[in-house]
Design brief:
5 strands, globular, RNaseH-like_sf, manganese, RNA-DNA hybrid ribonuclease activity, hydrolase
Amino acid sequence: MLKLHYSNFKNECGTDEAGRGCLAGPVTAAAVILPENFKNGLLNDSKLLSEKKRNILKPIIESAALTFSFAHIFPTEIDEINILNASILAMHQSIASLSISPEFIIVDGNRFKPFEKIPHETIVKGDSKFLSIAAASILAKTYRDAYMETIHEEFPMYNWKQNKGYPTKEHREAIRKYGPTKYHRKSFRLLPEQLKMPL
């Protein structure tokens, strides 16, 4: 069972992102503050759950949470500020949109920049240790997946509905055949041989 709190603060917010390693689409973060009595045996790191389980958990988290929010940072901005800064910015934007200001922030991973003057702690594999980070990981993943399914309609040949923008063999083959789209991250190595292309 994952733990509810890291700190002694009542309004502790968990935050996590999805889509950092993708070649296309936004990096998406979510922030969640759960109530004191929250319990859920199914809730875990989104990467350990099936799509079906994530979709079951999403409305449960949203109805139980004291407040939640998510934010997308799109490829043009990712290319400008780099993926790490974009991931942190997405987390900051999602925290800023919460209807309750958190007293403490717990962050999945080991990189974060202070948000306002709120104390924070980074926790490696935090999404498999704390309920609020796991909840944020599920919201970030499901909102990002829904966005990728929408843009799939515009460019079905990349099969984003299936690969969600991750660097699968099929996705790379489509980039090789059709070239990158406006949704691709131009600063990423879209094809393995990109470094060898004549300028």
